[in-house]
Design brief:
The complex is a heterotrimer of chains A (about 270), B (about 260) and C (about 300).
Chain A (H helix, E strand, L loop, with lengths): L23 H20 L4 H6 L14 H7 L1 H29 L7 H16 L2 H12 L3 H25 L4 H8 L4 H8 L1 H23 L10 H10 L3 H29 L1
Chain B lengths: L1 E9 L5 E10 L4 E5 L6 H8 L7 E6 L2 E2 L5 H9 L1 E4 L11 H6 L8 H6 L4 H13 L15 H14 L4 E4 L8 H18 L2 E5 L3 H7 L2 E6 L2 E7 L5 H8 L17
Parallel strand pairs in B: 3-8, 3-9, 6-7, 7-8
Antiparallel strand pairs in B: 1-2, 1-4, 4-5, 9-10
Helix pairs in contact in B: 5-6, 6-7
Chain C lengths: L5 H7 L5 H24 L4 H17 L7 H36 L6 H16 L2 H12 L3 H25 L4 H8 L4 H35 L8 H9 L3 H30 L7 H13 L6
Helix pairs in contact in C: 4-5, 4-7, 4-9, 4-11, 5-7, 6-7, 7-9, 8-9, 9-11, 10-11, 11-12
Classes of the chains: A mainly alpha (about 270), B alpha/beta (about 260), C mainly alpha (about 300).
Chain lengths: ~270, ~260, ~300
């Protein structure tokens, strides 16, 4: 009883099944993806040498040391403006999103026209990047933080509506039915039957949108929509790399800190 | 031959899962380990291939010390030991064949296996292992598309493909229905008898232990409380191992008699 | 029925935990103070609030109908395509870099000393918006699509790395344990026990990131880092609103096309093989829930 040999070739004649061939489209898709990647790479000027030489480029020295005195004297006020934009945009955007989300959810929308209408419009709004909106508003109402705030309100609204309406979709329909069966009007029934269930998600999403807005707001100034990006853009025009570096480091520290705080609060909420 | 000498396992947090265990298992035996959950059955099996580190004592597998073994030496021990898991532990999103080939990892250079360039002989062994458990035709099917019983057979085939001296089966039928349970236990029995592979099985169904085991090891709270051939086992033995009377929950078939 | 005694009332009325109440009121107060402070500091008068909608509507109306003159259309379409190329190559670069890093950052596949630095690296990279990275890179790599591609690729390493790490950590480690029990080393256990389980999810994340990157690359042109953004800025600066309309129209069409087709492919990948494991559908819901400009 000491033989310890497993199955060996030649023990027995077996006919292993044949490996099923890949479907015809497998190779077609693979070839198409590779071709598209290579073509795209050439169109954007991909080059390995450029990638390799990137860290050793002598121009980097001009970024260092950052000109801190200048940064602290000139970038702090615009930075504060940036966060004011983010705060206001988050608040207004998320408040507007509340009724729109209920109109856009299959669970709470009773009117087919408002359901499909709001859905189509929000989808359309979402396809346009936030900075494009900001630029449109700058053109319409002039340079400054107001245009930036409006741009981010649109952005917050579109993200929030998407996230929140899908949460409402997934809510338990029971309480809503019960409230309506008890004779409540539609809006009143939604308020008592659905809102309490999804409110914690709403607050968590709002904080998430705030994090996105903080990051989005720092670049608004590049199109003249206020905030610290304006300073960045001006120094860029004058090739003041050491000041740019200072601003970027400052931005990083503040954005990173605010984000961690928001993440911590979100974790406590949900 | 597997020799446990004064083996203790203490988990982080201070739980003593195995206390001063001394047992010897001869080549070619079919051993069933019984005990309540938490009695240390699983710890005993996993200590043999180093998935659980023994904190004291010595475990010799065919003369090689497992306790304290690391890296290449540990992998050499594991190469001789096939393992079958309660939850099958298959990579469900890939083919049955790829799962069985995992059993050949210790036999094939790492670069070949990593790139999927398995030698023909190793593939042949995988096919033979699948044939032995009767699901050769499923070789190129995604593992997730198989039934529970078939998945466990893939698990057995994976262990067989290792060409092991020992097979450890950790509650191999806990996730299966009664009919499939018997098929899987039958497979293990055949492997033990035909190939002479030493087989250790953890079971919590006493009627299955009775039917298939030839030697029974009983554990209670990490200690060895029974060790003997099946002929010496009766209701009283189980009562001692469990520390309570046998209930229908301890049996695979309701109404089955232990004695 | 007799009136309840005071003691009984105290029993049946549960109170919210004090710390929870403090937390809730604290957050509310911060929000209100922040809002008031922001509103009063920013230069927003009631007068401007009243006229703004009219001004915006006027401009939006002027973008319709867009200028559909042949040469201009093909130029705009070319620029939109350039944005797509930038997004694709950037995503591919990020995918290649983030995949090995993700395994080095996950707690079930990497030693402890390696996890923390890698995770922090992801967090740091993620905090730099693409455009800020592009501003830094611009003097080095020059005007053009390559700068935008690098910025997008770099930023996406952070986001893809984080998502992939989480995907790896959420899998059942059983198959990898089986590979180790069979005598495989750590790399082999990852290759055969972990990779097949997470790759579909991770590839879906890549596609998802590509959708986001198409929007991000459209914006790159604002600072001259390639793509359709420069075209929009120019047309709006010269107040050629019908031409700006063309740019918006093609941006919308291409973004919609990519979102829809990519989402369809993602669904196929995640649910591939006809299984409906709950983990899969959960991942899919996560993904669909966050489509859009979010998750940057």
């Amino acid at each position: 009883m000491t033989t310890t040999e497993g199955p060996r070739p030649g023990d027995r004649e077996i006919v292993p099944p044949r490996k099923p061939p890949r479907p015809w489209w497998y190779w077609a898709v693979a070839a198409a993806v590779i071709a598209f990647t290579v073509y795209s790479g050439r169109r954007v000027g991909f080059s390995l040498t450029s990638l390799k030489d990137l860290p050793s480029n002598p121009l980097w020295e001009k970024f260092w040391p950052p000109e801190w005195d200048w940064v602290f004297a000139n970038a702090i006020d615009p930075l504060i403006e940036t966060f004011q934009i983010a705060i206001l945009a988050t608040l207004v955007g998320c408040l507007l999103a509340l009724p729109v989300s209920f109109a856009m959810s299959r669970l709470t929308s009773h009117n087919t026209y408002t359901y499909f209408g709001s859905k189509a419009i929000m989808n359309l709004i979402r396809t346009i990047p936030d900075l494009f909106w900001a630029k449109l508003f700058v053109t319409a109402i002039g340079i400054g933080a107001f245009a930036g705030t409006l741009g981010l309100i649109i952005f917050s609204l579109s993200v929030m509506v998407k996230l929140f309406s899908e949460t409402i979709d997934a809510a338990d329909p029971g309480p809503l039915e019960a409230a309506e069966a008890a004779g409540g009007t539609h809006i009143a029934s939604v308020k008592v039957g659905v809102l309490p269930e999804v409110l914690p998600n709403y607050v968590a999403y709002a904080l998430y949108v705030f994090e996105l807005n903080i990051r989005a707001s720092v670049v608004l100034g590049l199109v003249g929509a206020g905030g610290v990006g304006r300073v960045l853009e001006a120094q860029r025009q004058f090739f003041q790399f050491d000041r740019i570096m200072g601003i970027v480091i400052l931005l990083f520290v503040v954005v990173f800190t605010l984000e961690q705080i928001s993440v911590a609060i979100r974790r406590r909420l949900v | 031959m597997i020799e446990f000498k004064n083996v203790s396992v203490t988990y982080r947090g201070g739980v003593k899962a195995l206390k001063n265990l001394t047992v010897t298992i001869e080549d070619g035996e079919f051993v069933v380990i019984v005990g309540l959950s938490g009695a240390g059955k699983s710890t005993m099996l996993r200590a043999m291939n180093g998935l659980v580190k023994a904190t004291e004592g010595s475990i010799l597998v065919n003369g090689t010390e497992v306790v304290g073994a690391k890296g290449r030496r540990l992998r050499e021990v594991r190469k001789q030991i096939g393992m079958i898991f309660q939850t099958f532990n298959l990579a469900t999103r890939t083919t049955v064949l790829n799962n069985v080939l995992m059993g050949r990892l210790a036999h094939v250079p790492a670069w070949r296996s990593t790139l999927g360039l398995w030698p023909a002989e190793d593939k042949e062994r995988a096919f033979l292992a699948l044939d032995r458990v009767g699901i050769l035709e499923k070789a190129y099917v995604r593992a997730s598309d198989l039934s529970g019983g078939q998945q466990q057979r893939v698990g057995i085939a994976r262990a067989l493909a290792q060409d092991p001296a020992v097979v450890l089966a950790d509650e191999p039928v806990a996730a299966l229905d009664p009919v499939t349970s018997h098929q899987v236990m039958g497979d293990l029995q055949t492997i033990n008898e035909d190939l002479g592979i030493t087989t250790l099985v953890n079971l919590h169904f006493l009627d299955l232990a009775r039917t298939y085991g030839r030697r029974i090891i009983g554990l209670r709270a990490g200690e060895l409380v029974f060790d003997g051939p099946i002929e010496e086992v009766d209701d009283e033995t189980f009562r001692e191992i469990y520390g309570r009377a046998v209930t229908p929950d301890d049996l695979l078939h309701e109404g089955a008699e232990v004695e | 029925m007799t009136a309840p005694t005071e003691a009984e009332v105290a029993v049946v009325r549960p109170r919210m935990a004090r710390s929870k109440l403090v937390f809730r009121y604290g957050v509310t107060a911060v929000i209100i103070i922040g809002a008031v402070w922001s509103f009063t500091s920013l230069d927003i008068s009631v007068e401007r609030l009243r006229t703004a909608p009219g001004d915006i509507w006027k401009i939006l109306r002027l973008t319709v109908p867009p200028d559909m003159e042949g040469d201009f259309v093909s130029r705009v379409f070319g620029k939109v395509l350039e944005s797509v190329y930038i997004a694709w190559v950037g995503t591919m670069i990020a995918a290649l870099i983030s995949l090995p890093l993700a395994f080095m950052g996950a707690e079930n596949t990497a030693p402890r000393w390696m996890q923390l630095p890698i995770r922090q690296l992801f967090n740091v990279i993620r905090s730099f918006p693409e455009l800020i990275l592009a501003v830094l890179l611009l003097p080095i790599t020059g005007l053009g699509a390559w700068t935008g591609t690098l910025a997008i690729g770099l930023h996406s390493v952070g986001t893809l790395g984080k998502l992939s790490t989480e995907a790896i950590e959420s899998i059942d480690f059983g198959p990898a344990e089986a590979a180790q029990a069979a005598g495989g080393n750590r790399l082999e256990a990852i290759r055969w026990g972990v990779l097949p389980q997470v790759l579909p999810t991770i590839v879906a994340y890549w596609l998802f990131r590509f959708e986001i990157n198409v929007r991000a690359s459209a914006v790159m042109g604002v600072i001259g880092a390639g793509g359709v953004g420069s075209e929009l800025i120019n047309q709006l600066n010269f107040r050629q609103f019908d031409k700006a309309g063309t740019v918006l129209l093609f941006t919308i069409l291409v973004v919609l096309f990519i979102d829809t087709s990519s989402a369809a492919v993602r669904r196929r990948i995640i649910l591939g093989g006809g299984t409906s494991e709950s983990a899969n559908t959960e991942v899919f819901r996560d993904l669909s829930g966050l489509t859009g400009p979010g998750l940057t």
